[in-house]
Amino acid sequence: MTTGAAVAPGRGSGVAAVAACDTITLVDISAKTDYAIRALAMLAEVQTTGGGALSAETLAARQDLPRKFLEAILADLRRGGIVVSTRGAYGGYALARDAGDISLGAVFRVVSGPLAEVRGVRPQDVRYEGAAAHLPTVWVAVRASLRRVLDEVSLADLVAGDLPDHVRHLADDPDAWANR
């Protein structure tokens, strides 16, 4: 997906970017972020049905995820207050709060850090001279666009397929699905 997102490559960010001469050419959602949201979607689904905790093994098997990597992600999510863990024969992981109160943006930030950075610096802190003086405004707008989608979609929205109208509108544009 081509965009002007400003994210430093190789910094463990949930949205990684490839920079060429300080121009950002790609936004890529990391496996860590994808796996986290897929596992949390399952926990949200279980929460809506009144089910209990799910083991890392069950989550990994149902979503075809590498178990050891998922266990590390779940530990990050536990430390970040997104999930709680229970030990024992019926133990496993459950959401720490209602699925409607957990945004995808919150998950991104817990497992991968800020949504957008420019060479490791927050977009509002970047300064350029001359012809590129207004570029930080574009980077801030890109971050705002990411926030508008990720912070306004909850795990409950995702599981129910009840996405906000503005998110559906973006995805309904046939051009959104085309590679450039």
Automatic annotation (TrEMBL):
Coiled coil region boundaries: none
Keyword rRNA-binding tagged: no
Keywords, comma-separated and alphabetical: DNA-binding
InterPro entries, A to Z: TR_Rrf2-type_CS, Tscrpt_reg_Rrf2, WH-like_DNA-bd_sf, WH_DNA-bd_sf
PANTHER family xrefs: HTH-TYPE TRANSCRIPTIONAL REGULATOR ISCR, WINGED HELIX-TURN-HELIX TRANSCRIPTIONAL REGULATOR, RRF2 FAMILY
NCBIfam families: rrf2_super
Protein's recorded name: RrF2 family transcriptional regulator
